[in-house]
Protein: Reverse transcriptase Ty1/copia-type domain-containing protein
Organism: Cylindrotheca closterium
Amino acid sequence: MDVVVILRAIYGMLQASLLWYQNLRASLEEYGFVFNVYDPCIANMTVNKKQLTIRFHDDDVLASHMEQRVLEDFFTWINEGYGGLKEVTCTRGRVHTYLGMTLDYSKKGKLKIRMDDYVQRMLDEFSVKFKEDDKQETPAGNNLLEWYVDASFAVHPDFKSHTGGVITMGVGAMQAMSKKQKLNSRSSTHAELIGVDDAITQVLWTRMFMEEQGYPIEKNILYQDNMSSILLKKNERSSAGKQSRALNIRYFFVTDQVEKGNLTIKRMPTDDMWGDYMTKPLQGEKFRKFRALIQGDQEDRYNRLGLYIHVTY
């Protein structure tokens, strides 16, 4: 029986991506990088008293530093280690391509993310053409994270509730969630509290990740429209009735985060609660309003029939 020993990973196999990551990580750590504990694909090191940050997914690498020479030295090192089969190429300037996205830093203080090149290749492949181009600028907030978390009580056939949430850092949604709750709740207050527990890990991770990267978050605000639930989380069991005492203690983890200053909970009127969009089928004006907010449309460009209206700015 012949035995074949594979000396390298086979491209496309599941193990290949893991081996590639382990190899690249070991090389970067030897070079002097320290990995972000909240994202295994981001690493930092200090060069000339300034932070050199890299982010990589598969074979796409983004690197940033204040000095051009530092970046040139880094990519020279990359080519020496990984350019044997194919030269590692890099782009400089204010416009970059990464994972199919085009990142445009042309305007100071603003970042435009678009995928028109990638989409155009898909359209060309399937012979689909658009006559007009549409772009939407999304200015960022100033070190501010805002979370809109809502719950719909007992809306599923098994009477479980549903959690919806949206996070924004300026205009439009940065990420969103919509999921069925795992527990049956006895009231809408319980459902809202469980909804916050569903979102709390992402709330805390986002703040810790941003601060690990050197961007302190001044405010981490979570909005809800249920006042009883807000009082319950702020005051812990001092405002909990007999029904609430049956809740598992893990749902009061959020109380500790409020006390530590990691999170601020505020009331948001139901008419302005973005999370509603992720928990129930909205109708009419409210649906169009939340859709525009989440998509970052500064003007609602959809008419009441749901037809897209092209707007020229």
